[in-house]
Write a structure and sequence with these properties.
single chain, alpha+beta, 60s Ribosomal Protein L30, Chain: A, Phosphoribosyl-aminoimidazole Synthetase, Chain A, domain 2, 2 domains, seven-stranded mixed sheet
Length: 307
């Protein structure tokens, strides 16, 4: 097996980019990339690692997909379109070239799915495998942000909740299922939906750290959000697994994270859009401060690094 230490950085980069063509004005291979587009530039960065983001059963190509997808999700939450991705990979020198190629295959697969250009990156030696993505997006018009919700707005979510949590627990039990693995290993950033809602939504955030975290961040100062549990789009398999492991489905939907949906607020008069994009109303913004579910306070708790 060829190892990175046998090849050196320049050969490794050549292997990773072999056969790739760029639509950028200046793409991979130069000191920096050059892009051309209209409107605002939206930028974000995120890092994933085998130790922090790879539950049992996750493959190297899944890790690469994740590194791209988490960034595209952040771009989508701003109502923008992801255009380019920079990918930096850190790996121990004894890592096999085929292993790093597997990671890159996942990055490129996600880029192809969302028509995003890989515009550059870097490789370095380190103690463990890390993949850092930096996404650049284009936006014509004002961005969506986490602030802007107003009293009387509806609170909506773009898709099913709790599947990543269910996938994780199912794997721990030795009973994995396809929908859970897909949500856990290969989250689908809601790029299309972010673009569709940007002209009508008042605030937006992705649910990667858990729905509860989103609701507390979207709540206007001095105001509140009420959520109705019977309206939450929780997948039926989440409810089934909840009974098997003794963990409430509401806990998995609210606090586990990893679903990569978009939670957003919008005026009631714009609710016709929800059917178009397949989103579900889960609550509304009210005058009473705090966040409640069925009248009970909701903890501001979700996925958080360093804890």
């Amino acid at each position: 097996m060829e190892r990175l230490r046998d090849l050196g950085e320049r050969a490794v980069i050549e292997r990773l980019l072999e056969g790739q063509r760029s639509r950028a004005l200046v793409g991979p291979g130069d000191d920096a990339a050059v892009l051309e587009w209209k409107g605002h530039v939206v930028a974000c960065t995120d890092v994933v690692s085998m130790s922090g983001h790879a539950p049992a059963g996750m493959g190297l190509s899944d890790l690469g997909w994740m590194a791209a997808a988490v960034n595209f999700s952040d771009i989508a939450a701003m109502g923008a379109r992801p255009e380019g991705l920079l990918t930096c990979m850190i790996a121990p020198p004894e890592t096999g070239m085929d292993e790093l190629s597997a990671v890159m295959s996942g990055v490129l697969e996600c880029c192809r799915e969302f028509d995003v250009e890989l515009i550059g990156g870097d490789t370095k030696a380190g103690a463990e495998l890390l993949v850092c993505g930096t996404a650049l997006g284009s936006l014509e018009g004002p961005p969506l942000t986490r602030t802007g919700a107003m009293r009387g707005d509806l609170v909506a979510d773009t898709g099913e909740l709790g599947l990543a949590a269910a996938g994780f627990h199912a794997r721990e039990m030795g009973t994995p299922f396809d929908e859970g693995d897909q949500a856990l290993f290969r989250p689908w950033p809601r790029v299309r939906e972010g673009i569709q809602i940007r002209d009508v939504a008042s605030a937006c955030m992705d649910t990667s750290d858990g729905l509860a975290v989103c609701l507390h961040r979207l709540r206007p100062p001095g105001e509140g959000i009420v959520v109705h549990s019977h309206q939450l789009p929780v997948h039926s398999l989440v409810n089934e697994l909840s009974l098997a492991i003794g963990t409430p489905s509401l806990e998995m939907a609210m606090h586990f994270g990893g679903d990569y949906q978009l939670t957003f607020t919008l005026p009631p008069e714009c609710s016709d859009l929800l059917d178009v994009i397949g989103a579900t109303v889960i609550g509304e913004v009210v005058s009473t401060p705090g966040v409640t579910v069925d009248g009970r306070p909701l903890d501001d708790r979700g996925w958080e690094h360093f804890r």
